[in-house]
Amino acid sequence: MKRTLIRGGTLVTGTRSWVGDLLVIGRQIAALDPGLATSCDEVVDATGLHVLPGVIDDQVHFRQPGLEHKEDLTHATRACAKGGVTSFLEMPNTKPATVTVDLLHQKLEMASSCCLVNYGFYMGATPHNVAELKQARRTPGIKIFIGSSTGDLLVDQQEALERIFAETTLPITAHCEDEAIVRANAARFAGVHDVAVHSQIRDHEAAIVCTRRAISLAKRHKHRFHVLHVSTAAEIAEIQQHEKLITAEVCPHHLFFSVDDYPRLGSLIQMNPSIKFRSDNVGLWQALLDGSIQVVATDHAPHTLEEKQQPYPASPSGLPAVENSLALFLNQVNLGRCRIEQVVRWMCEAPAAVWNLKDKGFLRPGYDADLVLVDLQSQRTIRNEEQQTKCGWSPWHGDTLTGWPVQTMVGGQWVFRQRQGQDKPWFAASPMGTEIEFDHDGPGYWGRTDWGQENI
Ligand code: DOR
Question: Above pLDDT 90, what percent of the chain?
């Protein structure tokens, strides 16, 4: 088995950082600080670099099958590798939507031949597919669109929701925007083509009412539940009453963009849930820092520029982000707004714990060697023409960030390299990603007791 020694980097976990060596044997992390005795096939000098567990993005839309003109698994997973994302969990609103076990297995089969990073796929709920949801095992959990978004998945009838929460056992996650409120607002603003109205249609109330409704379902049925893409500061009070059942996540666009950015970026930042106010950015950031929100994910949702440039409301909601999300947070580390250990907790350890990913997310002997080496000094400007995502644009085009992934490893194999001063990134030629395994009897985020014990 191949032995790789990553020497002299700063190893970072969710609780601490120290300068040390990391030994990889085959697909696994064999040891942290193994000493000098080992002979290796490859020694990587990581002096000056930080060594992190690979990012796990638990909310992406990679569009295959059916919408490959926007994105596909080959492009998307290159974007992941470049962004330091070594595992992704993909949403079911493809074409067809992933609403049967058969369709789930077809997706897994398709992914096995083209993914540079590790893959998992959610089951989508419909009002009538509880039997399928109960049978599915090779999935992190169940996604419910309680409010509609891209695609036609929607479950907003109370009876159907009660049944899903009552009869299934996999963790549930949901898109929370109240359908009735959104529809009523849309009718009020019919004929308005200024995209800024999107945040008045998908307003604060729509998000808060629906998140409250979903949390109430989870508590009554004692069902583990993860709130996707929290967009308002007011939702945080709901999430804080978690009773060890509820976790939540925030996305970069809800932290770094507000309605004040519509004049500059227009429909590029049209998202569901919508972008909100500056005060929401501040409240959400605070909730991340104090642990009220546990996870950072992207909701990577590519559409072509041509599609985005249609006049509102024909312009679709969604933006691409996997390739820049880690850098956006490393930049925050450099700005002094958070610590790199917190970034590891939010983007690597916490999503692994929420979804009970087997042997992933932590820098630990015996865990999978999914790693990212980052250079906190490296400065790059995000450019549309350099994006690996098939849609070929980024809402952060023109922004210069300090702190970038420079080398990514998946299952003990390098998949991406780009050091400071190099224009062209290198990518592995063959797909290295494998199917993510889930321990459905695992403790979940609140039950996990081994945080910070990296040498066990
Ligand atoms: O803005 C969004 N776009 N939000 C979602 O929930 C779905 C996504 C998409 O798939 O385009």
Answer: 96
Inside any domain, residue 16:
no
Tell me what pLDDT residue 36 has: 61
What CATH number is attached to the domain comprising 332? 3.20.20.140
Instruction: Give the number of domains in the chain.
Output: 1
Measure the CA–CA gap between 56 and 89, rounded to whole angstroms.
8
Longest alpha-carbon distance in the chain: 71
**Cα 29 to middle of ligand 1, angstroms:** 35
151 Cα–ligand 1 center, Å: 9
Cα→Cα distances 145→67, 91, 157, 299, 311, Å: 19, 10, 11, 14, 25
Residue 14 lies in a domain: no
For residue 35, what pLDDT band results from cuts at 50, 70 and 90? confident
Q: Which residues contact 135 (CB under 8 A, 6 or more apart)?
A: 101
Amino acid at 301: A
> Nearest residue CA, atom 4 of ligand 1?
272
365: number of Cβ within 10 Å: 16
Taking the CA of residue 91 as reference, the ligand 1 atom at the shortest distance is 10
The atom of ligand 1 lying closest to the CA of 145 is 6
User: What are the pLDDT digits (tens) for 171-230?
Assistant: 999 999 999 999 999 999 999 999 999 999 999 999 999 999 999 999 999 999 999 999
pLDDT tens for 141-180 read: 999 999 999 999 999 999 999 999 999 999 999 999 999 9
pLDDT computed for residue 420 by the predictor? 72
Range of the domain at 240: 54-364
Annotated catalytic, 299? yes
> Is the overall model pTM greater than 0.85, yes or no?
yes
Q: 70: Cβ–Cβ under 8 A, 6 or more apart, which residues?
A: 63, 302, 303, 304, 307, 390, 391
> Residue 353's pLDDT is what?
98
> Which tokens belong to 16?
């601490």
Query: From the CA of 429, how far away is ligand 1's center (Å)?
Result: 30
Q: Single out the residue of 367, 366, 413, 374 nearest to residue 3, CA to CA.
A: 413
